[in-house]
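[Q] Does anyone have a clean structure-token version of this?
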Amino acid sequence: MPLNIDVQQILLHMFNLVLLFGILYVLLYKPVHDFMAKREEEYKDREAKTRDALSEAEKLKGDYEKMIKDAEAELAAKRAELSASAENDREKIISDAHARATQIVDEARDKAQSEHDRLMTRAQSEIAEYVSKAAEKIVMKDESLSDDFDSFFDSMAQQKEADNG
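[A] Here you go.
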């Protein structure tokens, strides 16, 4: 053999190399490859679960946003209803106050008119009394007028009773 190369040695080295690759494949590559495949599968599962959770979260977010919008709409409706009710109550209170004020003014006018009438009647009666006393003093001086005065006074008393009665 030239250069001191033995075919048997080469074949033995090749066999050892193939055997080494086989053992390394079984001991290292296959477990590492299986581990990596398993790990890749776990990450795919996690990604799928995360995607599902994200879609569920987005669905819940949409549901909650819808619930919030519904609640806000309901709240706005309640506010509008309460505002309208408050406005109606305010208008009712104002109209009641105006009615009460009108009633009080009317009662005051009636009382004032009644007091005016009473005072006028009293003043007329006092004036009539003073006139009567003055006339009586004048008439008493003259006896002939005394009978006329008595008849006039009686007719005035009857007329006054007729007016009051």
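[Q] Thanks! Anything notable?
[A] The two ends are 172 Å apart (CA to CA).
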